[in-house]
Structure prediction request, 553 residues.
Amino acid sequence: MSTLDVRNVALRFGDRQILDDVSFSIGAGEFTGLIGSNGVGKTTLLRAILGLQSIDAGTIVVNGETERSHRIGYVPQKISIDPETPLRARDFVALGINANRFGLRRYTSDEKARITQYLEAVGAASFADTRIGELSGGELQRILIAHALISAPSLLLLDEPLANLDPRSVQEIVALLHSVSKQFGIAVLLSAHEMNALLPVMDRIAYLTAGRCASGTTEEVVQSDVLSRLYGHHVDVLRLHGRVLVVAEPSDDVDHLPSHATLNLDE
Amino acid sequence: MRYLFEPGLFSSSPALHALFLSAVVAAVSAVVGVYVILRSNSFSGHALTDVATTGGAGAAFVGFAPLVGFIGGALAGAGAIEVVGRDNAQHRDTATGLVLGAATGLSALFLYLTATNSTTTGVTQQVLFGSIFSVSTATIPVAALLAILIVGVMGLIARPLTLASLSPDIARAHGVPSRRLGVIFLVCTSVSVGLSAITLGSVLSTALIIGPAATALRLSKNIWRATLASVAIGIGACWAGIVIAYDSYYWHRSSQELPVSCCVVAVIVAFYGASSALRRLRSRHV
Prediction:
């Protein structure tokens, strides 16, 4: 049984068809990249998997259930926290333990040990006692990951966690997520508009464009014919020093633009 | 000044009632205030006090107990803000502003009508700036019960509310009902505004909610400790303010005492100023 099964999902906002017929699945401990350019519906799809967004057609099955059991870890795209917020990084991770339980709680020594263990696992021990609003982007990302992991999810969703990070942090976060997925057997679905940083670790790829999705191993999907079919026009896939570039064929239309298409400032 | 505590403070029953009531109210306000700031709700929090004014003024006009008017007004305002702002979160501030304007207009009307139609003097002063020495003895146990209730509810929702305040989406992914928690919190804020209004007056009640919490958040980076500090600062400011106001009766030959609310707010502002200075000193040493 796969951890996540997305079947023929369609979703529209008003007149705009965001997702048309999207299907893919992820098995336990698999690292999957959800790749697509900005505005293609990655965030919407992740929110639909979480149950925060209703879908118009298709099914989303997590751990064999269509009802959400809340065993999904989530790292959203943008979260801004006031520097004066009275929570240490450690406290934010702690909030992930039985987060939906009401009432005050004292953490047992077991739980305290677990909090420290997860802080160390994401390499956050050195800033565990810093106010969460004072962390850098890469540091906050690690804390959000530790917060998600401490609730022992079977599936971890991350929305563009690599955007706005410096190249070194990108490498570190990718390596961290890869080791986490293998160590804890968690299925990871990570959205990104750029796949190269993920190539060494991706078990599978879900390539999203124009509301449709091609999925499989990187070798299967990142091929000129597969992506050309997905885009609906010819694209080339260039491989260079272990990196991949997807480029559209130069269009003839550009040379034959009608003359009135030039901008006339006098009018 | 002959004594720190002028004669009769602890044997005067209005003064003792004032000390008790202000402590209860300050504690609730301080707890709620921490989350008002955490949720960046200061503006709608303030708007609630304006709507509470309308309620208080209306109650004075009709002859209801002030506490009923204040809390009723704040709850109605919270409902209005919630309904008008529901469709579009970005318009929430606009909705708040509209509710605030309408409410203040109504307050003016009620206060005018009450002042011209009745023999009660100083009703405007009482509604806007409070009258803690003349709160009716029947109100005090009601206020205490409400305070216990609100602190209890806050204790129940504090943990999920903290998460929902920082990121509603992360909270929802954990199965936390972010939206419903927000509504429950708004009700807690409304009651707390009402309680604060009978103490400091409706206009100054924000000071008791925001002030101690803002001071405490600068002092501690642990939310539970910050909440306790906020409670201590709130109670301390109220008591100091009451003592100053009581003592001020003896300062002048005219035997005029300063308004309590003015003294309390002055102490709160002084605390906040001191915390800023302390923070600056600390960061210079790091």
